[in-house]
Amino acid sequence: MTILDEIEAAIPALRRYAGALVRDRDAADDLVQDCLERAVARRDAWRGQGPVRAWLFRILLNRHRDLRRAAPRPGHLVPVEGLFPEPSAPPPQDGHLAVAEVRAAMERLPDEQRQALLLVALEGLSFEAAAAALDIPRGTLMSRLARARANLRALTGREPSSKGMSR
């Protein structure tokens, strides 16, 4: 499989991750497009260390950070309806409420925690691949995941909160 084949195979995962990061379908598509353009143009720079998918997530995340620094939008909230495909059969009401509650709690997590949790939980990346994509040590990733999970439990009432969210 060539690097271009691996890049093409990663497009659905990149779209999911970008959609979860920016919470706007058009902005997510633009972000993925930027990521793909950079990856294809710089495919000779890929050193062959680790999976191509982790390299692509790193490019996407770095581009996302660049765009946020260039045009910050404090307090800009976008509804998450439509980002996640709905199941073919409607879930029981309790299940639907739980999903909505977790989505709302995910929105309130600090960006670093949400990014780490999405890579591991949504995209299924290994700890090593997720740490490489975020360009952080594995221990830092593990710490962010632990804080994200604890914050989600507190925000959804599964565990008592102690002085608000931990960073």
Characteristic key phrases:
single chain, 167 residues, mainly alpha, Rna Polymerase Sigma Factor, Chain: A, Arc Repressor Mutant, subunit A, 2 domains, 0% strand, transcription regulation, PhyR_sigma2
What does it look like?
Helix 2 crosses helix 3, helix 3 packs across helix 4 and helix 4 packs parallel to helix 7. The protein has two domains: 71 residues, RNA polymerase sigma factor, region 2, helix turn helix motif (Rna Polymerase Sigma Factor, Chain: A); 69 residues, Arc Repressor Mutant, subunit A (Orthogonal Bundle). 27% of the residues are buried. With 167 residues, it is mainly α. It has eight helices and no strands.
Instruction: Identify low-pLDDT runs.
Output: none
What is the level 1 CATH name of the largest domain? Answer: Mainly Alpha
Strand-pairing-aware structural class: mainly alpha
Total number of distinct structural domains: 2
Largest sheet: none
Global outline: globular
> Can you count the helices?
8
String of helices and strands = HHHHHHHH
Q: What is the strand content?
A: under 5%
Helix content: 55-70%
List the helices and strands and how they pair.
Elements: H1 3-9, H2 11-22, H3 25-41, H4 52-70, H5 93-108, H6 111-122, H7 127-134, H8 138-155
In short:
By secondary structure, this protein is mainly α. The chain has helices spanning 3-9, 11-22, 25-41, 52-70, 93-108, 111-122, 127-134, 138-155.
